[in-house]
Write a structure and sequence with these properties.
about 200 residues; Tetracycline Repressor, domain 2; 9 helices; about 0% strand; elongated
Length: about 200
């Protein structure tokens, strides 16, 4: 009887291997042959899942952001999650925890971005597109808080952008700074969010 293949598991194996190869070899010098060899599968098998290395990177971003957004939507609209500031704090704390739990993968993703940028490939649009849902979620929570009188009247777009920038900075620090301390980032973020209370 032929062995049953878990296609999702295989895709994730290719993905993890590719991120390691991208980080080690540089995005430009990486190819599907190296990825296939290190994943222990054939190159044609890799092509069954991904047509090129760009597709692998896009899949990585899509997979990570999709899983996170589903989780954060539940937190954002939970009736038992506290007010909007408390829910945003929980979401941000979880994002940082997730980044810390996946530090190597995050570092590889960012290393790929830096390497690709040097070679004229810019993934900024992909990242922006995939994280837009989180930005919209923050805006909706802010707008809800303003409308309910729990958050002072602020420029929702500008404030959500600032919050998003603080989260990006924390994730960058997780990936690149060994001395990163979540407590310090969360204190800054909490202090900022508390200034929004009505």
């Amino acid at each position: 009887m032929p062995k049953k293949i878990d296609h999702n598991e295989r895709k994730e194996t290719i993905l993890r291997t590719a991120l390691d190869v991208f980080a080690r070899e540089g995005y430009h010098d990486s190819n599907l042959s190296i990825i296939a060899e290190e994943a222990g599968i054939s190159r044609p098998t890799v092509y069954q899942y991904f047509h090129n290395k760009d597709e692998i990177y896009y899949y990585a971003v899509k997979l990570i952001t999709g899983r996170l957004f589903a989780k954060y939507s539940l937190i954002a609209w939970s009736e038992h999650g506290g007010d909007e500031i408390e829910r945003m704090t929980r979401i941000i704390s979880d994002i940082i925890d997730t980044a810390m739990d996946n530090e190597q993968a995050l570092m590889n993703l960012m290393t790929v971005m830096v390497s690709a940028k040097k070679e004229g490939v810019d993934f900024a649009d992909v990242i922006h597109h995939r994280t837009a849902k989180l930005s919209i979620l923050l805006k909706r929570l802010l707008r809800q808080g303003v409308d309910a009188g729990r958050i002072r009247d602020v420029d929702v777009a500008s404030v959500s952008e600032t919050i998003f920038d603080l989260v990006e900075l924390a994730c960058f620090q997780v990936a690149f700074f060994r001395a990163y301390r979540k407590e310090d980032s969360m204190k800054q973020i909490r202090d900022y969010l508390e200034t929004l209370r009505a």
